[in-house]
Amino acid sequence: MLSSDEGSRCTSVASVAGSSSDSMPVEVTEGRYGTEKVSKRAKSSKASKAKAKAGLTWRRGVVYAAGSFVVIAFFATIIAVVAYYESEEEVLPALAPQPPFPSPPPPSTNFSLTVLSSALANPWALAVLPDGSLLVTQRGGTLLRLSADGMSVLATLSGLPSVDAAGQGGLLDVALDPDFATSPFVYLSYSEPGSGAEAGLSGTAVARALLVGDALQGLSVIFRQEPKVTGSGHYGSRLAFAADKSLFV
Description:
Blueprint: E1 10-15, E2 25-31, E3 34-39, H1 45-91, E4 123-128, E5 134-138, E6 142-146, E7 153-156, E8 171-176, E9 185-193, E10 202-212, E11 215-224, E12 240-241, E13 247-248
Antiparallel strand pairs: 1-2, 2-3, 4-5, 5-6, 6-7, 8-9, 9-10, 10-11, 12-13
């Protein structure tokens, strides 16, 4: 009988109908969530052993079947591969021996070197002006304008930045603005000496200025390596403009 309280539970023990040898006590629980029957006796030892033996036999059969399948698949794969290559040998014609690669042609000697000027001191780069004359940087820090044939120095330009002319450093590349006809800017890369706390150090810098006659005016630094470092090598400094006028250093 259930108590009037919803939370109370009542337990009684009954015997499952059947033969006296098979009767099995169960626990009957009633409450607010219904009635449950839970076995209180484990199965007999004989039945448990029989079930375990049947399960072991079944598992062994699965293992044997899987192993047999793997072995058959392995040998079937080998037979298929051998048959494939035998068929390929029958279908493909024998390849003729290939001739050796030809030797590369000898380097062309159809050029000559002409010395335009031997009066320059460590020339590093040049740019061709619209009138054909040449702007030539000298690593010591000077920018020259030469005649179109390169044999005459027409002018030494003024308005250049200070450079650290040591080792591989100094006044390095020179380039003209892509719109030089309307914006006559000249771009220079160089090794810039440090000052103040960076005295004795140097780093790559790029500046640009307007070319007015034989002078650079309004020089401004547009790139500066930070921080500056010791040593006097590996400044890089080549200048190149892309089609969209981006400047690469």
